[in-house]
Amino acid sequence: MGVKADAIFFLECIEHLGDDDLDQVLLKIKKSLHHDGILIITTPNSENLSESMNFCPNCKCLYHKWQHLRSWNTQTLSNRLIELGFTINEISSHDFSVKKYSMVKKTKLHM
Fold first, then answer.
1. What global pTM score does this model have?
2. Which terminus of the chain, N or C, has fewer Cβ atoms within 10 Å?
3. Taking a C-beta distance cutoff of 8 angstroms, is the pair 36, 67 a contact?
4. DSSP letters along 59-105, please?
5. If we measure between CA atoms, which residue out of 40, 31, 37 comes closest to residue 6?
6. Comparing C-alpha atoms, which of 19, 83, 64, 33 is closest to residue 10?
């Protein structure tokens, strides 16, 4: 293989991959990294997929409004990556939900 990367960012993608593509894509990423390269992945954490499902009355299909096919958490993501030969240096979850940050006070401007 040609040039290898020191770092690869895989942002908000892994939740969109189906079973047929998931391992294949991750293994291609692994092959594209230097032996000491890093992979940075972001994905929704423990997403409840059923909360964002929509029904199309035309085709009668049930689909996720952002086309997410799976939900990940730190354990499931670590397990899958380890199965594929990755070494986990760090994994964490962060809550960026609106509810957490809605404590910002609303102010009125008087003119």
1. 0.78
2. C
3. no
4. T--EEETT-----B-HHHHHHHHHHTT---S--------TTTTTTSP
5. 37
6. 33
